[in-house]
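Aim 2 progress update. The chain analyzed this quarter is reproduced below.
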Amino acid sequence: MKVLYATSEARPFAASGGLADVAGSLPKALRNRLVGCRVVMPLYEAVPQELRDGMTFLTSFSVPVAWRRQYCGVFEAKHNGVIYYLLDNQYYFKRAGLYGHYDDAERFAFFSRAVLEMLKYVDFKPDIIHANDWQCGLIPVYQTLFYGKEEPYNRIRTVYTIHNIQYQGKYGMEILEDVFGLPQSARDFVEHDGAINLMKAGIEAADRVTTVSKTYAQEILDPWFSHGLDPILRLREWKLTGILNGIDTVKNDPQVDPALYAPYSADDRSGKAENKRALQERLGLPIRADVPLIGMVSRLASHKGFDLVKHIQEQLLQEDVQMVVLGSGEWVYETFFREIYAKYPEKFCFCSGFVPELAQKIYAAADIFLMPSKSEPCGLSQMLACRYGAVPVVRETGGLKDSIHDCGDGEGNGFTFQTYNADDMLHAIQRALAAYHNKADWPLIVDRAMRSDFSWGRSANEYIRLYKALLKAE
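Predicted structure tokens:
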């Protein structure tokens, strides 16, 4: 079985968010299970020179973009045993930043068409094209309308993954023909609420649709979560599957992580205490082994649950706790945390921005990790927290619900609350604090968290079952 994984970003070449983590990890896990998976993405200006130096030029061809024909060069790179095709067009991709340009619609129409055209020129004929997010939403449409009846495209099936339904790729209908090169008969694929919607196009045209957790797959059928796409998804529910993402357990391993002050493992957690002591010293907090340290690493955005945190922050700091928050984002939250930092310097530390090595140190030092999101398609931080022995406190939504299970049953790996309510969140934190002071139970909870299986191997097996079922059904 051969899979072409089409993505607008992938680590280590170019990244802006979680999609790049998935595209940098899932293909490797698939290859480890004898699936011939290759990745295709744009060759952005942001791709580092040291990675460019390792690329090989394969070929070039012209791509129809409506009435235009545009150059496309194909460069091949290998990373972690996976072959990557990087598609070059300096007019579209030699720019600062991956997204947010006035002509993003045209840029990713070019990319989507180029992915399919490329298959005529490279020695790789996939059984499945796996497209991701709105930037690749046109791939299943072009495959269906322009390529699906000719060899070898008539044997290719398409899978489309929604990573975050909030970002849908919406444009005016006036560019349907002039930019996308689609006939008026294609309106049924792309039109939603009187506009072009590229995520809707991918949902309509793909053979199967996935999203990044089982709970999120159910949530996006509800208007509260769907950002307007719930009617489309309910009609296509038969093709929708939720598969929880994983994390890179090799890179994120407290035994070998170079960012940590001291190594440790689930079998020998003694080094975790040194990570806590050293972080307290670095942040100017009192060095105390007996106080529970609560960590947060997040973008400071309302959907991450910071309204709840604001509501109970001072009440929480009346407890015998320490807390550190790392992140940047909305002004209202940054200002609030700076004020709390100034008022409670012995208990609270706010680190503005995102510093990867500090994030790893917080995971390793924290006893408890707080993640009270209003919505969370999958979430990776709660998995990383478990990996590093920071017991998560999360709201039961999306991937948080699928990955973290409450310790109330004696078998869970964290603490959860259900309603989006500050008092309920505070109660969950207080339950975690009480458990922390129970010297018999707390090591067992930490052990269960650290031994949770969030490897990409588990996720890859579910994707393989989906691919096989799709090919068998045909």
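Residues 2-246+457-473 form a domain with the Rossmann fold fold (CATH 3.40.50.2000). The chain has a mean pLDDT of 96. These observations will guide the mutagenesis experiments scheduled for the next reporting period.
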